[in-house]
Write a structure and sequence with these properties.
- This protein is 68% helix and 0% strand.
- With 214 residues, the chain is mainly α.
- Helix 4 runs parallel beside helix 7, helix 5 runs antiparallel to helix 7 and helix 5 packs antiparallel against helix 10.
- The protein is elongated.
- The termini are far apart.
């Protein structure tokens, strides 16, 4: 009598490998450093504070990072790699989506403000530390790319008349946001006035683009 056939085993969904303990520790240190950077800036972050916040010993922190500068560089690069903005509702008209996407960086969105504080620290640090510039340039490329798509949607004929016009407009607007953001954060400009100026500049850029596209 033939042996009873066993039902085929159901395929197992492969599970993603768990991060090693060393990788988890490094991630915890970088997370703590990023949070402290957003609260106190580069000058206000010490290795002792990071170790305490990450719940690791100083010896373990120095096992992963050679010194404070190495830690700060890695934390800024990690934060820049994960930099993201809240996408505006697709129900908004294209021009309003562009304004909303830019406006969240003027301090009215809590999560964007936290990210932007670290981004601003990276901008300042990159002026003196070339090692930070590649990560910063990559983040700026991604941000400008997103804004370029929104400018193109708001002024559909712009790219047809001048291939780089939408990208140039997006670069100008993101650079303006960088400056307004710094003034608002330094209390040199009220957030409401910063938003108003951003709205005026965005309207001017879109109006100029529309006339060029005609």
């Amino acid at each position: 009598m033939p042996a009873a056939q066993q039902p085929p085993a159901s395929p197992q969904t492969p599970q993603a490998p768990k991060p090693s303990k060393a990788a988890s520790t490094r991630a915890a240190i970088l997370g703590a450093a990023t949070e402290l950077l957003s609260e106190h800036g580069v000058r206000g972050v010490t290795v002792e504070a990071v170790a305490e916040s990450a719940d690791v010993s100083l010896g373990l922190l120095y096992y992963h990072f050679e010194n404070r500068q190495d830690l700060i560089r890695a934390a800024l690069a990690e934060a820049l790699a994960n930099y993201a903005y809240r996408r505006p509702s697709t129900e908004l008209p294209p021009a309003e989506r562009l304004r909303a996407a830019l406006s969240q960086h003027i301090g009215v969105d809590a999560e964007a403000a936290r990210q932007d504080r670290v981004y601003a620290e990276a901008m300042r640090a990159a002026a003196f530390d070339p090692a930070i510039r590649p990560a910063l340039a990559q983040t700026l490329t991604g941000w400008n790319g997103g804004m370029t798509r929104l400018v193109t949607a708001a002024v559909p004929g712009l790219a047809e008349t001048h291939l780089e016009a939408a990208a140039e407009a997006a670069t100008a607007l993101t650079a303006l946001v960088d400056g307004l953001q710094q003034r608002v954060r330094s209390s040199l400009l009220p957030a409401e006035r910063g938003l108003e100026l951003l709205g005026l500049a965005t309207s001017a850029v879109l109006a100029g683009g529309a006339s060029d596209a005609d």
